[in-house]
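User: structure tokens for this one?
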Amino acid sequence: MPALPVRLSVCLLALTACQTTPHRPAEWRGVDLSYVNEIEACGAVFRVDGRPADPYAVLADAGANVVRLRLWHAPDWTGYSTLDDVKKSIRRAKSAGMQVLLDFHYSDDWAHPGKQLRPAAWRNLDDVADLAAALSSYTRDTLIALRDEDLFPDFVATGNEINTDLLIDVEVAEDAPIDWTRNV
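Assistant:
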């Protein structure tokens, strides 16, 4: 079978993640818990009625049913929101009975409007096809690694707050024009 175009491969991965969702609740109640491991490592303790409690269980008991987790490519400034950290968080979410939305930032740092900086590992990829291949391989390999540990996310978000071009080299104005052909 011939290889699928990169953009189709990434779309199929995202659709596959959505199709594996075991059930669809009448209402989604999501929480972003990307910071929990770091906050706890700093010594914070979550409490209910004065007693220590797992924040995932607390939020699940309060009705949360999906957890959003941020994933950076290879941050050199923190040990959080890395693949290993995300695995730990997915285990906690699933243990609490919640589904998981994995948000690929495709950056080594915060990605938000105007700041969609490509990971350092991809900075020398000037050809759009090479950059797309790296993006596709990384996304696929990450999802396979998660699947192999029974940590496959229920949903996948590709990029974060993409109001400008994705995978760029310098910050731009939040209303900079988008090169849709390149982004696709």
